[in-house]
Design a protein that fits this description.
InterPro entries: 6-PGluconate_DH-like_C_sf, NAD(P)-bd_dom_sf, PDH_C, PDH_N, Preph/Arog_dehydrog, Prephen_DH. This protein is of the alpha/beta class and 287 residues long. 53% of the residues lie in helices and 14% in strands. It has 2 domains: 175 residues, Rossmann fold; 105 residues, 6-phosphogluconate dehydrogenase C-terminal fold (Orthogonal Bundle), CATH 1.10.3660.10.
Amino acid sequence: MKRTVGIIGLGLLGGSLAKGLALHPDYEVIGYARRSHIGAQAMADGVVKAAYTEARAVVEQADILVFALPPDTNARLFEELAPYIQPRTLITDVSSTKVNFARTVKQYIPMGAHFVSIHPMAGSEKGGYAMAQADLFKGCTWIVLTDESEPSWSEAGAQELVAMGEYLGGRVEQIAMKDHDGFMATVSHMPHTVAAMIATLAGGDAHGALRLRLAAGGFRDITRVAGGNPAMWREIITSNRQEVVRALSQLEEQILHIKNLLLTSDDDTLETYLKIAKTIRDDFSHL
């Protein structure tokens, strides 16, 4: 018997998850989208069996319930919908930050339901259902979070989500819930603010238009994520505020180190620094 996957939010991640799982022989997908035309398009595409503009209908039917909206929105919706979640349900989310949502789930989760969080490290600076792809997760890191001390966490649920990630072509990693937000601040949220800073520094004054005409691929690469949805990224960054501040402080230390090497003409140490950075980047490229 097929298990019903209910997806709350059919944007880039939720829509891509729906498109990918629509091809899975053991799953049937239903979805919630606030705008009716998005749900109608998902049904027309054969991505979901049913689509609703009221999330409660999805919650009441789901065996696996995926919250695929921004972190604080997920938390607010979960609190509202918790009374309608069935005891058998495996709850997960694809949020970029976990602390606030996990706190809300642990407070309101019904007895008998399970919560295992995931974070597919996939996406684009362009969002929305129109950009969703069935193969979005192929080759991307699919993080399944462990939280054995929590009664609602489930090893069986975690393994089902591991298998789901593998089916979608993801490279599965498992890390502790308590470590997630700090890691994401360093590899995702702080770098997003840096991309915004560089874009602003290069293009935000009277000479900006000329500088941007002179810029090439390196500038495009390092600022790509600055093209993301500002409202969504505000919610992501502020929901991980303390960890992002910590990561920015660490970045400040690196900036001061480089400035000191330049001011003291310590060019050999600068080259060593750049070699180490290249090795780190090359290792990442091989993943």
